[in-house]
Design a protein that fits this description.
Strand 15 and strand 16 (485-497) form a beta hairpin. Strands 1, 2, 3, 4, 5 and 6 form a six-stranded antiparallel β-sheet that branches. The protein has twelve helices and 18 strands. By secondary structure, the protein is α+β, with helices and mostly antiparallel strands. It folds into three domains: 12-266, 2-Layer Sandwich (Beta-Lactamase), CATH 3.30.450; 315-350; 379-546, Histidine kinase-like ATPase, C-terminal domain (Heat Shock Protein 90). 47% of the residues lie in helices and 19% in strands. Pfam families: HWE_HK.
């Protein structure tokens, strides 16, 4: 057993499956890797050299564009219109010269205030240039400089500036601005392998233009983990943690603060040295892998059988103890099965308790029904009247039971009990006013209060305020305190008005028994019934703990 534990320690099923896959594949991969190492080294050296050359070629293309813009600025700076201070003529001449181009010229003073902008008609009120730091840098250096990419105020797009500082006091600098997407037309991946991308990066590390599968929008920060390493005039960058299986080449644009970068996946090649060596070595390695897989499969099979045995004993109704195996997940399943067997035993005990409780409640309901039928039988003068009276009372009792069943006999809110029982008299619902703070009733209180409400409403519909359209009923409850009774009390009142004159009955029927004797006994309280001429008044004062569910 110790030897088995040594070779098969506790581990997850995934670990065992990975171990089996590794046992089969790793020797083969190692064998092929020996053949690929030298080839990969040669290919990698060639790829690095070509990548650096491609980045340099792209930098020359961008350099020509920037040099063309600088030449244009020098020519414009020496124009007679600008020398004579005729900005309107200079604006017209410049606009005409650049009509077929995607560039625009801006003249600014030392504060950065735009004196003219060929994007706008001459004389249009203009603000200061959006990129003041770039202007200040060029004026401080006295050289033509390219700015970082920024969002233009007028165009609303990403643009860049090439600034020529001047000694003229009025026109302190001339600027050529171009949309970054127009420069992007010069950035191409032609001649690069599939999957490679190219970009121009400004001094602050933001994308000026980009193309290729990994397209980056202008203004997007280039990976800050890479930029600090691009210090030479040109070269390559490779870091598996940052760019897995990828290579990056870069070149600084001479005389400018920008640089160009290209990057993409490193092509992998697979070449076999000899078929004979591959077949012999492959067969031997596959045999080793099969033997390893067989050993792993045998261990997993033993574990599954132990779990299956646990499940069978649990199905027979036993409480099972978890088995100890060498697979972590199997141990978790064994614990879960053991817990489930214990839970099932507890559930069976609860079911027996519920059945006992159901029998007890059924007996109580049958006792109540029997008492109700005996009382009604004494007062009924015909089978039809007895049947109608019994049906009516049973319907009220059924409503209470349905409420309790919907709440799994856990109690029902008082207002819901009132609403359910008064729904039996929809024609009189608008005549009844209900008020009081809601709370949850105990199951017994739901039945007993429901019986009383049903009798009060039935009596009112037949003889009282609800028998006429102008009649009104106010049903309310509130907390009360009595000095000689420290416990909390509730007072319910059913007050009728506007109905026919009330005459106290000469004998007590079933309804009177329910609303007086039964209600008082059920809630251990007192009931007052006043047959006032203007309407019946019923008042129940009971202990709150006999009604409210804790």
């Amino acid at each position: 057993m110790k030897i088995v534990a040594l070779f098969f320690p506790k581990a997850s099923i995934g670990t065992y499956l990975v171990a089996m896959a590794v046992a089969i594949a790793l020797p083969i991969f190692a064998f092929v890797a020996l053949l690929l190492l030298q080839l990969e080294d040669n290919q990698r050296s060639t790829l690095k050299r070509e990548t650096a050359q491609d980045a340099l070629a792209l930098s020359r293309i961008i350099d020509r564009q920037l040099q063309d813009m600088a030449t244009t600025l020098r020519l414009l700076s020496s124009s007679p219109e600008l020398e004579n201070g005729n900005l309107a003529a200079f604006h017209e001449r410049t606009e005409t010269a650049l009509r077929d181009n995607t560039m625009f010229v801006i003249a600014v003073d030392r504060s950065g205030q735009q004196l003219l902008n060929t994007r706008r008609a001459f004389g249009t009120p203009l603000e200061k240039v959006a990129n003041i730091p770039a202007l200040e840098s060029a004026m401080a250096s006295g050289r033509i400089e390219a700015s970082d990419v920024f969002r233009g105020r007028i165009s609303g797009d990403w643009v860049y500036n090439v600034t020529l500082p001047r000694a003229d006091d009025r026109v302190a600098a001339l600027i050529i601005t171009q949309d970054a997407r127009d420069l992007g037309k010069l950035v191409t991946t032609e001649g690069l392998a599939a999957g490679w991308s190219a970009a121009v990066v400004d001094q602050s590390g933001h994308i000026v233009a980009s193309t290729g599968p990994t397209h980056l929008e202008p203004g997007t920060p280039f990976d800050p983990r890479i930029l600090p390493a691009l210090t030479a005039s040109r070269g390559v960058f490779q870091d598996e943690a940052i760019m897995p299986h990828m290579l990056l080449g870069y070149a600084k644009i001479p005389g400018w603060s920008w640089k160009t970068v290209i990057w993409g996946p490193i092509a992998q090649a697979s070449i076999l040295s000899t078929w004979r060596f591959l077949i012999i070595g492959g067969v031997a390695l596959v045999l080793v892998a099969v033997l390893g897989a067989y050993a792993v499969a045998r261990q997993v099979r033993t574990t599954i059988r132990e779990i299956a045995d646990m499940a069978n004993r649990m199905g027979e109704g036993h409480i099972v103890s978890p088995v100890e195996t060498s697979v972590i997940e199997a141990n978790q399943v064994a614990i879960a099965l053991s817990n489930a067997s214990f839970d099932r035993s507890q559930t069976e005990d609860r079911l027996r308790f519920v059945m006992h409780e159901l029998v007890h409640r059924t007996k109580n309901l049958l006792t109540l029904a029997q008492a109700m039928m005996r009382q009604l039988a004494k007062q009924a003068d015909s089978v039809e009247s007895f049947s109608a009276a019994v049906s009516d009372r049973l319907q009220g009792l059924v409503r209470s039971i349905e409420l309790l069943t919907s709440e799994q006999w856990g109690g029902v809110s008082l207002r819901r009990v009132v609403d359910i029982h008064l729904q039996a008299f929809p024609q009189s619902r608008e005549q009844i006013e209900i008020s009081g703070e809601d709370f949850v009733l105990k199951p017994d209180a739901v039945q007993n209060l429901g019986l009383a409400l049903h009798e009060l409403a039935t009596n009112s519909v037949k003889y009282g305020a609800l028998s006429v359209p102008q009649g009104r009923v106010r049903f309310q409850w509130q907390d009360v305190r009595e000095e000689d009774k420290p416990e909390a009390l509730l007072r319910f009142s059913w007050e009728e008005s506007g109905g026919p004159p009330v005459v106290e009955p000469s004998r007590s029927g079933f309804g009177t028994t329910v609303i007086k004797a039964h209600a008082a006994a059920a809630f251990r309280g007192t009931v007052e019934v006043d047959f006032r001429p203007e309407g019946l008044l019923w008042v129940l004062t009971a202990q709150r703990n006999t009604l409210e569910r804790e």
